[in-house]
## 1
Amino acid sequence: MSVYKFMVVAGARPNFMKIASITSAIEDHNHSRRVPQIERILVHTGQHYGEQMSASFFRDLGIPSPDVDLEVGSSSHAQQTAEIMKRFEPVLLEHTPDVLIVVGDVNSTVACSLVASKIEYPSQRGRVRPLIVHVEAGLRSFDRSMPEEINRIVTDALSDLLFITEESAATNLKLEGVAQAKIHWVGNTMVDTLLKHRDKAKESKILSQLGLQQVAGHELRSFAVVTLHRPSNVDKRESLEEILDALLMLSQKIKILFPMHPRTTHRIREFGFSSKFEFYESLQPLVDSTRIHCIPPLGYLDFLCLTSNAKLVLTDSGGIQEETTVLGVPCVTLRENTERPITVSTGNNVLAGTKKENILRLALERMEQKVRPNRPKYWDGEAGTRIVELLSRLVESS
Ligand code: UD1
């Protein structure tokens, strides 16, 4: 029986929920003895690390332990990207995969596809490089000041197969001259993971740990959840202050919970904004305060439980715009643009930009509106399976 090697790369927090669906689909494929069998090699670049930003996701989502950990850690974009490339090249040469799967738009995604695009190793078919597959291809914010936009454009240009989550991605790729045959509309692996873990997330203790049932007399949807980490929002004093002031005004109307990304924590301390927050190192019942209740980054199941029960989510994340769409929780995006326009056209998400008045106006408006859960085409829990079955057919026939 033929066996093909699929290497899967993950580096940063938003990658983990995407690869979870792919590694699980590979396991199902092998388990049901479908051909060809797949040898899976999982590489963690170590772009994100530690319990809160990495290990808890592997545990919550049942992702197998990485076969290789590059342990690159944090540094500037150039240094981090270069370090991943240097450490990834020998790994490719050692394992000689037939297929390299990269997901999303982080530095690990672009670094590993760039190495793979220039490598050559001996195989039964002569000297080859792996087939490069980009999952979540074609998304564009049309804002090249975002590091992720550069990562998306470069990764797509280097990839042999482009697996897309929504129709706008096909349009973008065609406008960039990508051949139709390379583009496959497979669905959304992040949504696969959400649907699979939704029931388990209901068992999370986070609501009672935060005293939310007591505060609201069992009446949930009494709080808003905020996430913020984009460099354009948090790295500049004025931009961060403008957003935080909007949140402080909003906190007069609704409790705000802010699981804070380490980048944002560093900046808030550096800019001297700590007095705007109640900071907690562990989960504590909310106290009656108009300051923002700030907690450490949450694991996947706790965060899913929290957002599922929120009245409103305010975020600058890409993935959370998609998750709230499926959950039917109104989302106010703290950015001028989105690379995920389907979340806006379904009516779940609005772009508020970063000006105080707009954020406050839209947040207050959205709090009073009901939005229905939406499942755009192929956001059905089967994207990982489509990806693995399509790839196994392609490698077998190549
Ligand atoms: C990265 C991704 C971004 C993604 C985000 C999700 C790129 C270009 N950016 O941004 O697309 O939305 O992850 O979280 O790849 N830090 C820790 N622990 C960690 C990781 C980081 O403390 O596990 C701190 C470090 O001080 C680091 C800072 O957070 O300098 C920022 O981390 P970094 O990985 O550089 O970028 P993110 O802002 O997380």
## 2
Amino acid sequence: MPKIVTLPGDGIGPEVTAAAVQVLREVAPDVTIEEHLIGGVAYDTHGDPFPQPTRDALANADAVLLGTVGGAQDSAWNLLPRHLRPESGLLALRKALGCYANLRPVRVQPGLEHLSPLKAELARGVDILIVRELLGGVYFDGDRKIDGDTAYNTMRYTTPEVERVAKVAFWAAEQRRGRVTSVDKANVLEVSELWRRDVTALRDRDYRGIHLNHEYVDSVAMLIVSDPSRYDVIVTENLFGDILSDLAAVIPGSLGLMPSASLGDGAGLFEPIHGSAPDIAGKGIANPAAAIMSAGMLLRHGLKRPDAANRIDRAVALALRAQPTRDLGGAADTQTFTRAVLSALESSPAVG
Ligand code: NAD
Ligand code: IPM
Ligand code: MN
């Protein structure tokens, strides 16, 4: 029996994770689900945002479903030494799982163009996969410091780090439309020069069938919202991917529609890309679609159950039509939306 560890975390994390768990239990009743602490709530309980009981639970997990971590701008957690802050717990979790490739799909399902603030003709048919490098760059480099009036971080990549994430992007493109756009800042940064060189060499060596092009991150920030259909797979380094994926959330219409899968050495980590939304936490109005779709990605990539994953995607699309949440201009709260997903699942039972 597969074991899934859930880490609801802070803010709206527990609200959206509870919704995703309800859906998981419906489509995969045989899986064992075990809940543990991460983030600020873990710090408050254990003095550590990624405490030992959580680390231990991951040892025999087949996949991990995360909610969100972190507090509001004025939260006391933000005054802790950096390694004790909620976000450091999440980064340590990603590292512990060896999840170096973060897949962030940006899709506008047919009939849901009206949820996008973009003109319907721009939003229609958009299907982008952002592959964000997740264990390198400024996020993890030890060469960092704040000291008086000076501070620095270091964006460093090595060829093996670039190649392993680029392979995931090329592999994904092979199952899709065969196009990869590598995003960098090679007109200014040496680290991007290496990134571009290594991605190109890998394509020339092992992925000749893939169409590869390179674009600068500033220009992509404009094009991804003004002409999103130009992209199939985007591969980029950690910080650029973080920023571009929140921007890309504008296309489907909300951060609440952006799931993700982080893959690498061992068990995968599945999480919505949005944060803990302190402004709406505890009100029961968060959009759980990203968390529910992340559970779908868990079934697809973590447990290799594409049929169950497809059922979830279809049910979420139906629920978004029937019961759009407030972030999408609708009136449904978290529970109402989740019930709509569950009833859509009931009306499309599993095959066999
Ligand atoms: P955020 O993503 O939490 O919120 C940005 C805006 O989007 C807010 O107005 C929020 O209400 C809205 N929003 C986000 N998710 C939503 C949802 N599911 N339904 C409806 N509305 C939604 O970003 P922020 O405010 O910059 O960050 C808040 C905290 O979350 C910070 O502590 C940050 O570090 C943390 N954070 C955590 C993660 C994570 O756990 N993966 C990701 C991003 C930010
Ligand atoms: C995300 C978040 C995290 C990141 C933070 C909370 C550490 O913004 O998952 O996109 O920057 O990776
Ligand atoms: Mn982010």
